Amino acid sequence: MRKILRVDMNSLKCTLADILNEYNGIGGRGLTSMLIASEVNTTCHPLGKNNKLVIAPGTLAGTKSPCSQRTSVGAKSPLTYGIKEANSGGIIGKKLARIGIGAIVLENKPKREHLYILHVAKNKIQLEEANHLKGYGNYDLNATLKGEYGKHVGIISIGNAGEMLMSAATVAMTDKDGIPARHAARGGLGAVMGSKGIKAIIIDDTGTPKQIFPANRESFNEAVKGFSTDILKRPRVKYRLPIYGTAGLIPFANEVNSLPTRNFSTGQFEGMEQISGDTLVRIIDARGGKRGHACYPGCIIRCSNVIMDKEGNHLTSSLEYETLGMLGSNCGIDDIDIIATLDHFCDDYGIDTIEFGGAMGVAMEAGVLSFGDGAGVLGILHEIGKGSPLGRILGNGVEITGKVFGMSRVPVIKGQGLPAWDPRTALATGLTFITSPQGADHTAGRLQGVMEFDHLVPGTIANLSRDMQIRACAYDTLGLCHFADGTDKSIEWLSKLLGAFLGDELTTDAILIMGKKIFETEKNFNLAAGISKVEDRLPEFMLKESLPPTNSSFTVSDGEIEKAFSSIKGF
Amino acid sequence: MRIYVKLFGIFRRYLPSNTEKPSFWLEVKNKAKIEDVFVLLGIPSDHPSVIVCDHRIAGKKDVLKKGAVVAIFPPVDGG
Known about the structure:
The complex is a heterodimer of chains A (571) and B (79). The radius of gyration of chain A is 22 Å and the shape is globular. Chain A is built from 22 helices and 17 strands. In chain A, strand 7 (116-121) and strand 8 form a beta hairpin. With 571 residues, chain A is an alpha+beta fold. The longest helix of chain B is centred in the middle third of the chain and has 8 residues, at 34-41. Chain B has 79 residues and is mainly beta. The N and C termini of chain B lie far apart (37 Å). A five-stranded mixed β-sheet of chain B has the order 2-1-5-3-4, with no helix packed on it. The chains are: A alpha+beta (571), B mainly beta (79). The interface between A and B is medium-sized, with 37 and 20 residues.
């Protein structure tokens, strides 16, 4: 039975208790959202003492289940003012599971503005004052803490942006190389962690069992084998992800006119080739970087990469589609080295590359910088690190930036900046942005298929978005990477894995029922927080402007949306 | 008639020998289908791919028009 570790930042007391039976089998996003929904006042201030930050490994973390080691972070978001969950790859999930921790809950606020680190180990949980770490970026912080606690530890941390409570601040987690390259990035959870006064959480699994065993080992191992074989046969795993990473999507997004360019003003970028997966592969290979890199040891997909600079030194891990889109084409920047440098400092300061890229697009259109001015963007990123007034504007995301500069072309939904898929062509993804309780969030349900780009089967887009969102809730609860998903057979594998883990027989329906329940929990939190159905809408400028050069527009009807989501409570 | 072909990712290994750039004009017969492009370039017909023609998702049986832009990608989805 996993434990829940509660850390009261007012009394500075830590308590461990068994997780309630009602949460049996519920980890990751399911646990963070259910705990937030039951324990956090929906109208609390996200940076105040009544918000909580919950960190939970997925249900299957620590087991041999493939691609199952992700960790969720949840709270009320200072960006959306609704419920938020963001999850991260890396080594934390496995380590927390080995120690037997199902959730860490940070509660209240410190009496004075002190910073602390929390040390979590097998027989030791300790809060320590850490004011000497104020102002540390994630890179130096990791190096310092590993020097003190050992190279083997995992570290959850905030950079400068989280310390300064900026709404685009991330929660960083170490990857298998010990680098703060993985982030629970969206929605400003780093600011919530900063408001609790926690700079870093050391996860030390020394002396713990190397593996978490399921109740029914034989069935579990069979399901692991079957699911792994299935995943490895998937075309995107065989032909794209370990070779090009997610950057392999850049040319496709461009060709179907969905690649945000210069603040979502067009769907195609003339500099696309320079920021594509093909160019990335050339640079990685020429400079001794890595592709087919795993974020945690043992991943069978290995979609990550490591980029070296021109001198052959580590520049950043991992450069992803979203960053290449939002800090590349969306800002008119066609230089991978500049984008990789921006990625490095976003990791260091702990800033969401999607939110920052969206904010920069708005700022550039407002005339703060010219589109294409990569050096200028880097300068503003350093302003974020310093906490200057301009840095604080951009560090608080797309909506605040739009307000400050008097802009009306502001790509946000429910306060969160749009990711690198233009909804006027990516219809199901766009509908997820519109309807998700998480705000504009591609990780909330952007899994499969090309049919959304052409509405190839009319009347199905809304169903597709709804089903993708429910599946995403299930995957995020179990700690699974979405790249492990495939056909309906995948859900069958999940039911076998979870069933064998718990010692139950589960149907595929059980997995989808679990996903739907979490989706509804989040939707109802938002309703009570004052986020109504009215907020389920595209930014006005996207309704008024069709997207050049193909003049696409969002064509999913209100009637189709209503029908598809009528079975979801809270819609 | 001429069509414009763009190859991406692993399909760049099928560039015609007289071509350096991954995007090029290709001479095809009138009313050629996209599957004929695969044959001309030597791409195995069962190799998983996603095809976009004139910015729209296309299938191998689609008939090409003069000047069509055909882009061939490794399998997409996710990311």
